[in-house]
Amino acid sequence: GVDEALAWDLAAIMDELASNIMRHSEATWMEWSLSRKADESLLILRFHDNGARFDPGSHPLPPAGHGFQGKMGLAMMRRLARGFRYRREGNHLNVLEVQLGPQARLVAA
Fold it and tell me: What is the reported pTM?
């Protein structure tokens, strides 16, 4: 029930987030879930992990013209997602919610 372009966006974001958690966060576990808000045509991807605190929605990107400096995946996720919600529960649990939907491609990076 998801169009092909949105499915590709979802796969790209899932791959980037899982890869970053495994390579950079020092997490010993992670889990994810996917749900759909039918009334808004949104997919909601949630990641939970016990790694280092990191909010991809607020982490600064380099200024235009300075290259990505290792942040190409972060820039890609911002371009494809409609939004991010991040919170830290206690001192050990990251909860990241990524919203994806048909308008995602219209959001500026």
Answer: 0.81
